[in-house]
Amino acid sequence: MKAYERLLSYVRVFTPSDENSDTSPSSTCQFDLARMLVRELQELGVTDASVDEHCYVYGHIPATPNCVSNKKLGFIAHMDTVSDFCDHEVTPVLTPDYDGQDLPLGKSGRILSPKMFPHLSSLKGRTLITSDGTTILGADDKAGIAEIMTMIEHLNSNPVSHGQISIAFTPDEEIGMGPAHFDVKKFDADYAYTLDGDTEGEIQFENFNAAKAVVNFTGVNVHPGSSKNTMVNAALVAMEFNSMLPSADTPRDTDEYEGFFHLYSMKGDVSEASLEYIIRDHDAEHFRCRKETMEHIASILNEKWSDGTVSLTITDQYRNMKEIIDTCPELIDYAKEACKSCGVTPLITPIRGGTDGAQLSFMGLPCPNLGTGGHAYHGPFEHITIEGMDAAVEVVLKIVELFYK
């Protein structure tokens, strides 16, 4: 099978994770795809393929006889999707020989346009895969799964010498919980790559340092007609807090290595209000300063409005994997050489987010990230090409060859 054929099958399986859940996996529907993948792995000769109680799929391809003592290499992708634009079945749409121009997405009224996504002109002549515009596509990260499966099939039909190759498909990556129950010992690899990036040829080993900040505001609510010097409007204090953050340090105004504060939820009234942020920065010192900035603002407002008006809770989420990958630069060298050998331009880019690999790297499994050929993830404009997926498969196969050369 071609990688895209597998993708078309996988995206029809409903697998959004649920950030409001306290179970693992966060949504039981992820087991539907997990069981399907176990069956497929077994059909491809991965005899020990299994899914555990937390919905992690594991399997191993034994080393060829001449490489039994070699280092072990792994490949990982995640099964869940975001919950946004994922309230009904995905209908994938193929557009052969895409003309690089505006493309209506079904009858949704949405237009996939080069004005919004300038890279679309470079995809002219390819076969584009989208949804019908009413849902996500789900290529994040079912494309990665499809490419790993296709890699396995190629290894079966075109055997090359290799050590043990470990395979894992994880749940709940989209809510930051992918590695929460990942069994590094069971996975049994010295190094791994996640296939969870964008454009084919993308090689990522630098990600954000990340934290979540929840700011609660307690007001004093009295009748507005007799509130002189008494009322403290929690909603207004919340607005004041946000106004004291650097106004240009938002996702819309930053790029590449620039960090940000992202306000993603706000609610409240005179009595109580709350703001929820994510804090991101590649640089560890800048990241620390961002957290201290929030703490300083909370302190100032408590001095102004009285202690207890502002309550700030900051929770660290993950760290920049670069400090780990810097100890094994050969992983990046293999990926760059593989891209060049396959006629794909290596794209060394920082991740403006995080992947399972970021946390796994700090769990003893160095794990840079590779592109799958997809674009515009997490929304109804998500798209990928057949040619991009084919190129991603070729790159991964070449990495295996180079790793055991």
Describe the protein's architecture and organization:
With 405 residues, this protein is α+β, with helices and mostly antiparallel strands. Strand 1 (50-51) and strand 2 form a beta hairpin. The two termini are 27 Å apart. The protein contains 10 helices and 18 strands.
Would you kindly provide a brief summary of this structure?
By secondary structure, the protein is of the alpha+beta class. The protein contains ten helices and 18 strands.
- The total strand number stands at 18
Uncertain runs are: none
Spatial gap, N to C terminus: 27 Å
Question: What is the mean pLDDT?
Answer: 96
Strand order of the largest sheet: 1-2-8-3-9-16-10-15
Using the CA coordinates, give the radius of gyration: 23 Å
**SSE string:** HHEEEEEEEHEHEEEHEEHEHHEHEEEH
The biggest sheet, with number of strands, parallel, antiparallel or mixed sense and barrel status, is: 8 strands, mixed
Number of helices: 10
What is the structural class? alpha+beta
User: What percent strand?
Assistant: 15-25%
Outline type: globular
Helicity range of the residues?
25-40%
Helix/strand layout:
Blueprint: H1 3-10, H2 30-43, E1 50-51, E2 57-61, E3 73-78, E4 93-95, E5 103-104, E6 111-112, E7 128-130, H3 139-157, E8 165-170, H4 184-187, E9 191-197, E10 202-204, E11 209-218, H5 234-243, E12 260-268, E13 272-281, H6 284-305, E14 310-318, H7 322-325, H8 330-341, E15 347-348, H9 356-361, E16 369-371, E17 374-375, E18 383-385, H10 386-403
Parallel strand pairs: 3-8, 3-9, 9-16, 10-15
Antiparallel strand pairs: 1-2, 2-8, 4-7, 5-6, 7-18, 10-16, 11-13, 11-14, 12-13, 17-18
